[in-house]
Amino acid sequence: MTYFADKHEPASPDPNVSPPRWTLAPRMSSWSVSPRKIVSLVLAMALVYYLNASLPVSKPHKAQRPSYLTEHLLYNSTVLPHAAFQPPEALPHRHADVVDTFASFKYRNTCNISSLDLHSPFAPLCTDRKSLLAAMSSGGRIGHDAPYMPRECDMRWFSTEEICEILARFEKVIILGDSMMRHVVGSLNVLIRKDLGYGAVTDWNFSPEERQDCFCNYQFNVKACSVQGIFKTGDVVKNDPESLACPANTIDVIIEQMIRFPIPSEELDRLRALLPAKKPTRPYAFVFGHGLWNDLDLQATLDWLDTLLDVTVNQAPWLGSLSQPVVSHARSRGISAAAARGERSKQASGFWPRLFLTPNAAGKEKPDEWLVSQGNKALMIFEESVQEEVKRKGVEHLGTWNMSIQSNKFDGVHLDLRGNLVKAMMVLNWLNMLEVENF
Questions:
Q1: Distance (Å, rounded) from C-alpha 354 to C-alpha 149?
Q2: How far is CA 259 from CA 228, 398, 407, in A?
């Protein structure tokens, strides 16, 4: 009997018998040189050289502003005689300003908020950051909680698609400050999640009670919903990515709460962790807000800002080269260390966009014990003083007192959803104007 193993066992080699042809290793034939082959090789090399020289080389996408900010656009304007405000320019980029951009948002009808309730568009549109910040800081409303209108020139009210594009120009948008600044981040999340009901809060882990208490306008109720607020877009990407309208991995907005001066060392460490030592492919933008937790003490606010600017530029040297140390030369020049830090931050030669927001106006629910130190007179003086001081440090300023004096506030301090959406849109207008192509 023949078994499978015996049948297929290889036979012993016989030195007198030549192996079959299929068992022999193939032989490599030598390549013979001929004039035809030499000509073919030269032509192939010439073709490769031509293609490398003529075909465009793909380069990383460089962030840049839209054309309506960099080019002069001609259009037929409509002028209404004796009208206080002229209609918006008949240009494509102003379409979102004249329609309800919330029409497709979740809970649009339940929350009963239209973008046209928040901002009333008119012409002309502001054409540079200086005029834009002045207009947004000094505008007003025609009646309590009426649509906000900047003064002399208008701001944009962006669609969600435009907002995604603006934020995508930046590697990271870092917001530093108190609960008012946290509400700016929350409002940005409302806009990019297209959700008026729960866009500002972590609704993916809500209990039934939280879904009731933190809905629509009450998302910014600091007593019931402060812990549930969204602190960074990365949390949305991680826990509820389907709710984000922006393309995946294109935006990064974060807040680090730093509410008072002196700033605890662990909070400064968190800021350092956000800043890369090497220059990123896209710029960073910084938005600051401070005041109430130091009782509108101007010097404390300036020291708070100087500390953050100093930590930032030391951790991220790509923001610009600095000529000398901060404190070591301050005494010899006869100036304070704080003033030296301010000059140092302004000397940074890199693209370093910085914006400071001063606090909201006080409402009628403000506790009486704070009406002197944090009332509207103190807030107005503080806003005007901060504007002048931060300018010396190379930081731009956005005032919010005018925008918020006729807005609803939960506790006399914090704006509701409507007011915070206007504030977030003002910040987006500043971001939109930044010359990111210079980075």
A1: 24
A2: 18, 18, 23
Residue 86, SS3 per DSSP: strand
CB 154 within 8 A of CB 124: yes
What integer pLDDT is reported at residue 50 of this predicted model?
A: 58
Q: What is the pLDDT of residues 198-240, one digit of tens each?
A: 999 999 999 999 999 999 999 998 888 888 999 999 999 999 9
Burial (CB count <10 Å: 0-12, 13-18, 19+), residue 119: buried
If you search the block for the tokens 């192939």, which residue do you land on? 44
pLDDT at 379 over 80: yes
Burial of 236: CB neighbours in 10 Å, binned 0-12, 13-18, 19+: buried
Answer whether 305's CB lies under 8 Å from 273's CB. Answer: no
Q: How far apart are CA 350 and CA 126, in angstroms?
A: 25
Reduced to 3 states (helix: H, G, I; strand: E, B; else coil), residue 4 is helix
Q: What is the DSSP string of 260-305?
A: SSSPPHHHHHHHHHHS-SS--SS-EEEEEE--GGGTT-HHHHHHHH
Helix (H, G, I), strand (E, B) or coil at 36: helix
